Task: inverse folding
């Protein structure tokens, strides 16, 4: 049976086969990758035509480098390539397109701290503006800039899905570094902020979306204490936040870790969708994934 989020995605699909940030907006890679993956995860049925059109949109927008632009009017390679790669890892895992996408992801690195900055941190640890390991490198929002939790989580999930298919020796080391970066950036009381755990000695607070994404990226690392703390923090955060984005991502994270909270979040999400009027299509796509009738719709548990 088609869940309500899937039906709303089908109704919001653009004539070109993609999805925009909002219904009626120009199609973008982020929303299209998530929506196409959501339709695939929910099986053919009523979503088959929408899935086929969405996958064609992704195929025709891939650049020769293997990356994707954010949108047709922003032609440069973008962070949304991780989500397109994650989508392809499910419905075209052995394709040449997916291999090129994975190769591009491996070449992307967030900017590290220069040698003089690392030396300063080691000589004067109490003078740090932010508390993080300067040697760890993840993925940035914009090429050549700081490594953030969200793009690192997206890239890590995609590479973990492709690590068997990609013939690159760097896959294991990049995945390991991503895991270590997420552990390093965890907030002191559990969960994740957008970039680091503290600034100028003051602890930062976690957010439900970034916490859920980091937990999804670490779904194959249930042994880490930061995962247990993150799940506890996510439960607290969702007690105070019932947005479709937070509940969709939160429900996926709980399911990926086999947490009992998943069922209750699913019920709350279904209720919210009944009252939905407009809103972001990426949030709707995450909701459709969370409501898919499969145990691990993103395929991140033990990927």
Result:
């Amino acid at each position: 049976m088609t869940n309500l989020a899937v039906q709303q995605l089908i109704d919001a699909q653009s004539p070109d086969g993609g999805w925009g940030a909002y219904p009626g907006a120009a199609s973008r890679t982020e929303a299209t990758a998530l929506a196409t993956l959501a339709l695939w995860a929910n099986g053919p049925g009523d979503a088959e035509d929408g899935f086929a059109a969405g996958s064609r949109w992704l195929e025709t927008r891939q650049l020769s480098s293997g990356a994707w632009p954010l949108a047709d009017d922003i032609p440069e390679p973008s962070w949304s390539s991780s989500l397109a790669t994650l989508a392809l890892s499910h419905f075209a895992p052995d394709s040449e397109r997916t291999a090129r996408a994975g190769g591009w992801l491996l070449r992307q690195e967030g900017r590290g701290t220069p040698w003089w900055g690392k030396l300063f941190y080691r000589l004067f640890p109490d003078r740090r503006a932010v508390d993080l390991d300067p040697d760890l490198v993840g993925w940035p929002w914009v090429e050549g800039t700081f490594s953030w939790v969200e793009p690192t989580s997206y890239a890590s999930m995609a590479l973990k899905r492709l690590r068997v298919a990609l013939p690159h020796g760097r896959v294991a080391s990049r995945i390991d570094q991503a895991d270590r970066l997420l552990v390093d950036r965890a907030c002191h009381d559990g969960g994740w902020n957008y970039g680091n755990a503290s600034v100028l000695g003051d602890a930062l607070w976690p957010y439900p979306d970034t916490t859920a994404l980091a937990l999804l990226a670490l779904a194959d690392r249930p042994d880490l204490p930061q995962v247990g703390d993150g799940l506890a923090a996510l439960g607290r955060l969702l007690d105070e936040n019932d947005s479709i984005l937070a509940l969709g991502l939160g429900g996926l994270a709980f399911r990926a870790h086999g947490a009992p909270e998943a069922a209750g979040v699913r019920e709350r999400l279904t209720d919210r969708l009944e009252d939905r009027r407009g809103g972001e299509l990426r949030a709707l796509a995450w909701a459709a994934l969370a409501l898919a009738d499969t145990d691990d719709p993103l395929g991140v548990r033990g990927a």
Summary: The domain at 4-290 is CATH 1.50.10.20 (Glycosyltransferase). Confidence is low (pLDDT under 50) at residues 114-120. Residues 136 and 177 are 6 Å apart (CA to CA). The chain has one domain: 4-290.
